[in-house]
Amino acid sequence: MLFPKKVKFRKWHTMRRNPKKAKVATRGVAVSFGSHGLKAITHARVRARQIESARKVIARNLGKTGKQWVRIFPDHPYTQKPPEVKLGKGKGDPVGYEVEIWPGRILFEVDGVPDGQAIETLIKAGKKLPLKVAVVSRR
Q: What secondary structure letter does DSSP report for 128?
């Protein structure tokens, strides 16, 4: 699983999610390395386990000839309180890392396989993620 070697602070603020102010990604919005990419359509927080699950699906379907790129990295720690604990007593302990994804961001890229196989692979990987995605190709 992906996680940073070191973070400056153990616990971060969660940040607000305001649906009225729809942000869109400005970085990582073009297919740069491969021939096809998986693009986010909605906003979500993607955890390291979900990224790893999608990556495994891509690796399994591409075989030895295909190449893949993961364009996101989970560097934001998230916390969770233990079950059956009453309110108060501070913030929970860090349990993992996540990345905040805005619409337009390219998540994964593939190359080295036929177009049909690349599209099918990316659709399968998109089903492992908690957001709506679309398959895009290099222009």
A: T
Architecture of domain 36-137: Alpha-Beta Complex (3.90)
pTM of the predicted model, to two decimals?
A: 0.91
Nearest alpha carbon to residue 9 among 110, 73, 91, 117: 91
Answer whether 50's CB lies under 8 Å from 130's CB. yes
Burial class (CB in 10 A: 0-12, 13-18, 19+), 100: middle
Tens-digit pLDDT profile for residues 82-137: 999 999 999 999 999 999 999 999 999 999 999 999 999 999 999 999 999 999 99
How far apart (Å, rounded) are the C-alpha atoms in residues 41 and 19?
14
Q: Per-residue DSSP letters for 44-88?
A: EEEEHHHHHHHHHHHHHHHTTT-EEEE-----EEEEEPPTT--S-
What are the domain boundaries of the chain? 36-137
Only one residue has tokens 């099918």, namely: 120
- Residue 110, classed as helix, strand or coil, is strand
SS3 state at 121: helix
